[in-house]
Amino acid sequence: VEVKIEVVIPEKERSKEEMSPNGKASPLIYKVNGTARHYHLEEHPIASNPYHNPKDMVEASVCHVKDLENGQMREVDLGCGKALLIKESGEFHAVGHKCPHYGAPLVKGILSKGRVRCPWHGSCFNISTGDIEDFPGLDSLPRFQVKIEKEKVYIRASKQALQTQRRTKMMAKCISLSNYNLSSTNVLIIGAGAAGLVCAETLRQEGFSDRIVMCTMDRHLPYDRPKLSKSMDSHPEQIALRPKEFFCTYDIEVLTEMQVVTVDVKSKIAVFKDGFKMEYNKLLIATGNTPKTLSCKGKEMENVFNIRTPEDANRVVKLATSKNVVIVGASFLGMEVAAYLAERAHSVSLVELEHVPFKKFFGERVGRAVMKMFENNRVKFYMQTEVSELREQEGKLKEVVLKSGKVLRADVCVVGVGAVPATGFLKQSGISIDSKGFIVVNKMMQTNIPGVFAAGDAVTFPLALRNNKKVNVPHWQMAHMHGRIAALNMLAHGTEISTVPYLWTAMFGKSIRYAGHGEGFDDVIIQGDLDELKFVAFYTKSDEVVAVASMNYDPIVSKVAEVLAAGRTIRKRDVDAVVSLSFRTGDMSWLTGKGS
């Protein structure tokens, strides 16, 4: 039985720019009036496009019922687009075939216990609903109807969904914003990165219909920050996580170029740099980190950059073209910038205190293989030294002087020597902060102050994978998950975080994928060929695998991530079996037992 309901809700668009109480123009406050009644959490939120035009639908026979075994996936063509057909526990499911994050083919991913994991970056999707269950990415997969007739499998799908290969989950809207005091909000989110945006979206997905305000020091709406170093000439609108119309549609207000300087947790008031005050009921702090700067002479001169914004990245590319570039720090950012500029600049030099890049993260052998790849692409390394001085000529950078005595020609300098949590404004707040400046939260992303949550790069939290050790994981995927868990617990769901850290880096058209938390590893087991840059590295502590990294060895990192997510322990003796099984489609039988 198919029931169709049409809901029409009148809306009037408010002005997108209003005056703040101090008389200054408020920076980019996007709002739209919603309906005049409240939505309660048990009600269904309004879908943006819940029903498809019958003319938009297509139906096709895609295979015989015996063509797929349990645990198998197949990409099938419906004529106007493709779908991913899955058979698990005797049932067929059909969803979008591309990961909405960066378009990875999910047929090459990992199927396990009702979900499929992306082979590139680890996003997970429920095969019954298409809903995203682990990150990165914001959208879910479209779900298609499957029917069996005369032992043939048919898929019925929307042409539009087949073409877009993504679906935004249904969200509630807000009650009339005209009823609100501008200086008061139910939820205030400080920071507009992945954690802040996912928190806001999750609240709306769960039916939350009160006011949500996000504030950011940035001039832009939330954007894909990892692309600042991986795709440096991207413009803000190209890497926006959501168009501004999205924020209007779902009544998520964004205040740009607004800095919170103090938080009074007793009065529940955030004070901004310009004196504006905002009262809140629930607070999420997702301020991320602040890049470290050089401490040497000349650090303030022109053409010395910390890359924090699209404008920074764009300007570095422009200034570096056919010029001499010096990058300080073989961090992820520093190495990605070096790789991006290698073909554009006249020369690229990289200065690093360690003797091998990525040694603490990937180990010495993998670090040396990556270093060799860079050297083969004209990047020159100056290791085990630091910058002692930046010299100028006519006000612009001309030379970088190293403590080793070497002098490097430099028209542009990019600094990538790490970062510190952006939590200085909380020192007198009463919110618990550790000795390194990280906000301490529990498994529900709650701080020691009721109603105050924190997420993203600025927090330490208990990682189930490492026996609930308090860790800081400053990666894109983890920020997404933090935001979701914080939102659920603002709504008193009592949800604890349980995810496997997953990250990637891209250099010279190659990616290193990584899952787990390898801090403190004492051994590295490498399979494959480091010289050919086709390998997998297992990081162990005592006898247990705590992390894995690979290059040109998909989908093994996603396979291991799924094993760890299932609560399984991988021992050193299991490594050969993991590698051999990783290329067998759907073979996850070894997850079902107990123990290791």
What's the topology here?
Blueprint: E1 57-64, E2 72-77, E3 82-88, E4 91-95, E5 110-112, E6 115-117, E7 124-126, E8 132-134, E9 143-149, E10 152-158, H1 159-164, E11 184-190, H2 194-205, E12 212-215, H3 227-230, H4 244-249, E13 252-255, E14 260-264, E15 269-272, E16 277-285, E17 289-291, E18 304-305, H5 310-320, E19 324-328, H6 332-341, E20 347-352, H7 359-362, H8 364-375, E21 379-383, E22 387-393, E23 396-402, E24 407-409, E25 412-415, E26 419-421, E27 439-440, E28 452-454, E29 459-463, E30 469-471, H9 476-490, E31 502-507, E32 510-516, E33 523-529, E34 534-541, E35 544-551, H10 556-565, H11 575-581
Parallel strand pairs: 11-12, 11-16, 12-13, 16-28, 18-25, 19-20, 19-25, 20-21, 27-29
Antiparallel strand pairs: 1-10, 2-3, 3-4, 4-9, 5-6, 6-7, 7-8, 9-10, 14-15, 15-16, 17-26, 22-23, 23-24, 29-30, 31-32, 32-35, 33-34, 34-35
What does this structure look like?
By secondary structure, the protein is an alpha/beta fold. It has 4 domains: 111 residues, Rieske [2Fe-2S] iron-sulphur domain (Rieske Iron-sulfur Protein, 3-layer Sandwich), CATH 2.102.10; 205 residues, FAD/NAD(P)-binding domain; 114 residues, 3-Layer(bba) Sandwich (FAD/NAD(P)-binding domain); 84 residues, FAD/NAD-linked reductase, C-terminal dimerisation domain (Enolase-like, domain 1), CATH 3.30.390. Helix content is 16%, strand content 30%. The strands form 8 sheets. Strands 11, 12, 13, 14, 15, 16 and 28 form a 7-stranded mixed β-sheet that branches. The protein has a 6-stranded antiparallel β-sheet with strand order 1-10-9-4-3-2. Helix 2 runs parallel beside helix 9. The longest helix is centred in the last third of the chain and has 15 residues. InterPro entries: FAD-oxidoreductase/Apoptosis, FAD/NAD-bd_sf, FAD/NAD-binding_dom, FAD/NAD-linked_Rdtase_dimer_sf, Reductase_C, Rieske_2Fe-2S, Rieske_2Fe-2S_sf.
